[in-house]
Amino acid sequence: MIDQLWLIPLGFAAGILGSMIGLGGGIIVVPVLTFLGFPPTVAASNSLFAAFSNSVASTISYSKQKRIEFSLGIKLGLLAIPGTIFGAIISTDVAPDIFKILFGFVLIASSVYIFLRKQLESRDKIISKQLIIFIIGSSFFAGIISSFFGIGGGIVFVPLMVVGMGMSMKRAAPTSQLILLFASLSGIIVHSILGHPDFLQSGFLAIGSFFGGLVGAKLSLSVKERNLKILISVVLGIAALKLFSDSFSDGFLI
Q1: What is the structure's pLDDT at 130?
Q2: Is residue 23 a part of any domain in this protein?
Q3: In angstroms, what CA-CA distances link 143 with 4, 84, 252?
Q4: Is 25 within 8 Å of 216 (Cβ atoms)?
């Protein structure tokens, strides 16, 4: 048990960053666990516990700041649930090398998003029937990503709200945390039924991530976003390259 305590500070650091950028702490937790040799399903399912804990803390803090669109967040969260069930099921037999390659692309997409997030903001959009269909499909897809990779799905939801719906970034990231609460909880349930997570490790990650979420929500009001996004983008880019390197060195595509 003592040798697992390092997961608490990992969850704390991931919780801070996840809360501030709206992507969930899994974007940090999963690469670390993967580098340390955790099987993909264990890394993803453990990370979802941290994502859920982080979303609870962040939602509490952001609701006090009145920065959450509750009606929209609840609707998108419920739409994501079928995707999370499917994502957990298909993650059961994924090969580690394939997981590393796919997650590397997710990290690159996350890095690009974080670096360009200010440029994504746009004016209010009219919600057409076509956009509603796109939102439903995107929510399902985000649910799959959330459960399969253990990252919560914020990489889809935040750009969807900002670019597709014209929401400001200051409200999109907090609303994303409410959505991740639904997505991560449903993913946790299915992964647990399938026997994927290590509950001791998940508990330590969740403890750290909860308090990190509280801190991150407060820091989001004052931190210099430019320095933060450069740092996170570089870290995620390096992590993606490491995942690609590991997958090829292990014999992928040979």
Answers
A1: 72
A2: yes
A3: 29, 4, 27
A4: no
Asked whether residue 198 is assigned to any structural domain, the reply reads yes
What is the amino acid identity at position 245?
Answer: S
Q: How many structural domains comprise the chain?
A: 1
Q: Is residue 27 in some structural domain?
A: yes
Give phi and psi for 70, each to the nearest 5.
-65, -45
The residue range of the domain holding 191 is 2-249
Tokens 């509280």 sit at which residue?
214
What is the predicted pLDDT for the residue at 33? 92
Q: Could you tell me the CA-to-CA distances from 3 to 6, 7, 201 in Å, in that order?
A: 7, 9, 10
How many angstroms separate the CA atoms of 229 and 173, rounded? 14
Cα(152)–Cα(50) distance, integer angstroms: 10
Report mean pLDDT in 10-residue bins for the chain, 254 residues: 88 85 78 89 92 89 89 91 92 82 81 66 58 82 88 77 75 86 93 94 94 85 68 74 75 49
Structure tokens at 235: 């870290």
Separation CA 13–CA 225 (nearest Å)? 17
pLDDT at 251: 55
Q: Minimal CA–CA distance to 184: which of 2, 23, 16, 38?
A: 23
Whole-prediction pTM value?
0.81
